[in-house]
Amino acid sequence: MEELKSTDSLDREIEADARKKADKIQKNTAAAIEHVKSEWRERLETALIREKERFSAQLDARKAEIAARLVLDKRRLEYEYSERSLHDAARAFLSGLSRQDLLQILERIFVFRIQEAFQNDFTSLHTAQVSISLQLLSRTEFDGIFAAVFSKSGVGCSSWEFRETRPQDTLWGETDVALIFDMPAVRINVSARAEVEELLLVKRTELSAALLGDNNV
Q: What's the pTM value of the predicted model, to 2 decimals?
């Protein structure tokens, strides 16, 4: 009987000791799990902060890139509008001229170029082979220009070769009149359109400011 009591007592002691150990293991495991959770929480928060900073930097860089592109696009559009407006104004100016006024412009340019090339010494023209290309210009109209240039020189154009040409495009319409004086040593190209485009190139800043305002120059 005493032996049974001793056995029961030993079993209870073993069971109690096992329970204590189990409770200790459970507590230690729970503490370890909480420690791991805390560590990973800190790592996650750190990673999230870094990712947020990286995303924010990328976003700022993207915004700056878009803003720069918008500025460039705005400037490009302003430039294109300025160029288009200037050329539209130039074409409108020439279109508003009478045919006589247009021919007078061509004549003045031709007189200047001829004098510049020959310095009023037209001796070579008496025997030279000369060809004339006329663009949207009749032979009668050329004869009027010729007379204004060579009337006192004794130079004739009956032996010159004449040909008709057409503009490369139709942007300037009937105002795109031109003539080309061509001989072995001299070539003179006279064009109302070319003169206006050269003026636009040289005076672009002034004309843009006058037409569109300083902000569009």
A: 0.57
